Amino acid sequence: MKSYLMAFVVGGIICVIAQILMDKTKLTPARILVMFVTLGVILGSFNIYDKIVEIGGAGATVPLPSFGNGLAKAVKKEVDSNGLIGAFTGGIKGAAGGITASIFFGYLAALIFNPKTKN
């Protein structure tokens, strides 16, 4: 039960931060999303985001900072195994699964639900 509560709290805090940024600044949602991914990369590179995941579970692994954390981990792994070229290939390898899944499921949803263009 505690893990559900902590997931709710951590995920809720991330969402509240985004909402405050949208309400109190002139930042667009796209810039806030980029900022969250970048923050995830920074926190992941210092192994701070892993501690947030330990506390918040799915509340920390589902939002966008987790995507940045995954990119940071993939780049670190590639740099350790392939040297400097890993700084360029690690992010691509780390993001490939998520991007492939989003394309596949987006296509599947388009087949099932018959999307229409917006006028």
Roughly what fraction of the amino acids lie in strands? Answer: under 5%
Give the overall shape: globular
Major sheet size, sense and barrel closure? none
Number of helices, counting only DSSP H or I runs of 4 residues or more: 6
Our Rg estimate from Cα atoms comes to 17 Å
Could you report the average pLDDT, rounded to the nearest whole number? 89
Number of strands: 0
Uncertain stretches of 5 or more adjacent residues = none
Number of domains: 1
Class from helix and strand fractions:
mainly alpha
SSE pattern: HHHHHH
Tell me the span between the first and last alpha carbons: 46 Å
Which range best describes the helical content: under 10%, 10-25%, 25-40%, 40-55%, 55-70% or over 70%? over 70%
What does this molecule look like?
The chain crosses the membrane at residues 6-22, 29-49, 94-113. It comes from Inconstantimicrobium porci. With 119 residues, the protein is mostly helical. It has one domain (2-113). It has 6 helices and no strands. The chain has helices at 2-24, 29-45, 49-56, 58-61, 64-82, 86-113. Helix 5 (64-82) crosses helix 6. The model has no long low-confidence stretch (mean pLDDT 89).
